Amino acid sequence: MRKTVCIVHYNTPELTTAGIKSIRKKGGMDWKVVVFDNSNERPFIITEPLGDVTIIDNTKGQIIDFDAELAKFPNKCSYLPHFASARHMMSVQKLWELVPQGFILMESDVILSQPIDFMWDENYAAIGKIQHFEGTGRLETDRLLPMLCYMNVPKLVANGAKYFDPVRNFGLHSDDEKDPLNWYDTGASFLEDIKNTKPALVARVYWNLYDYFSHYGSGSWKKKDLEDQKYWIECHWQDWMLNDEEKAQLATIKETPMEVVVAKTPQECKEEQNPEPPTFDESQGTPVVTAKNDGKPKTRKPRNSKKQK
After folding, report:
1. CB distance 299 to 279 below 8 Å
2. N or C end of the chain: which has fewer CB within 10 A?
3. CB 35 within 8 A of CB 17
4. CATH code at position 293
């Protein structure tokens, strides 16, 4: 199956362009890239050859009317001006419908620093990195980081998982930080669905995934200084700047229609003869990839259950 990367874009065309170039630079020259554009000020426009890129235009709410969707939550937090997390999760959920064969989710302010071919593995429901909050004092639930994450949409849909859950969602219920329903940041309810559906759904975790990308962070809603964004992009030029040969190759690649695949039913998932993947239980060890072994997975030894001083 052809590899696809989906990016939810919001007013960061320079960052998104650099991110797409990094995909090409790191071996994804023929990968499909889908940009779901939610911009209200600075839409994503292709101004140079970037290969096979499809833009899904939601700049006027043609696909998701966020005002209407957020109006369904009259008790939502009063101190959140944008509800960026909820908007992002709604967009990813819609991408499950539009790209049902599955994809790697990449945030618009991410630049790859190494190839990520190893993240595409249809034996798993998802592949990524877990962010733990235990012991941090933060009232949040562990999540699968949305910066870079593989999603096997047919498996996920067939087993009832969701990316946007209107119940478990940060900021949609009240101003009370002690309300457990407010502890779910982007990717938290998604990870919880996978954990609760074992062994039908299993995620593969790469603890050192940060070695494979750079993340500007909050570029679409908080860190809006364009000069600062430009400086950050220039600092990572080696990861995205294309040479003449790569530019010429991209110029020959045209946009292709998106493939539509019907999601598998639960019965079809049961009939699959895939090898048994490792469990999600950290006590049994977690697959890990390191820069030293060129992307080949290793297994991390179980951590001591006692807290180390």
Report:
1. no
2. C
3. no
4. 3.90.550
Largest CA distance in the chain: 57
Separation of alpha carbons 153 and 100, rounded Å: 6
Q: Is residue 41 part of a domain?
A: yes
Q: How many CB atoms lie within 10 A of CB 184?
A: 25
Q: Would you say the pTM of this structure is higher than 0.85? A: no
Q: Is residue 306 part of a domain?
A: no
C-beta of residue 105 within 8 angstroms of C-beta of residue 99: no
Distance of CA 236 to the CA centre of its chain: 21
Angle at CA of residue 40, ends 39 and 41, nearest 5°: 95
Query: pLDDT per position in the chain (309 positions), as tens?
Result: 789 999 999 999 999 999 999 999 999 999 999 999 999 999 999 999 999 999 999 999 999 999 999 999 888 887 777 788 899 999 999 999 999 999 999 999 999 999 999 999 999 999 999 988 755 445 578 999 999 999 999 999 999 999 999 988 888 877 776 777 778 889 999 999 999 998 999 999 998 999 999 999 865 555 568 899 999 999 999 999 999 999 999 999 988 876 544 444 445 545 553 545 544 444 444 444 333 344 444 434 444 434 444
CB 292: neighbour CB atoms within 10 A? 8
At 157, give phi and psi (nearest 5°).
-65, -40
Q: Count the domains in the chain.
A: 1
Residues forming a β-bridge with 299: 287
Q: In sequence order, what are the residues at sequence separation of 6 or more whose Cβ sits closer than 8 angstroms to the Cβ of residue 214?
A: 110, 111, 113, 236, 239
Instruction: Give domain status of residue 309, yes or no.
Output: no
Half-sphere exposure of 266 (CA within 13 A, CB side): 6
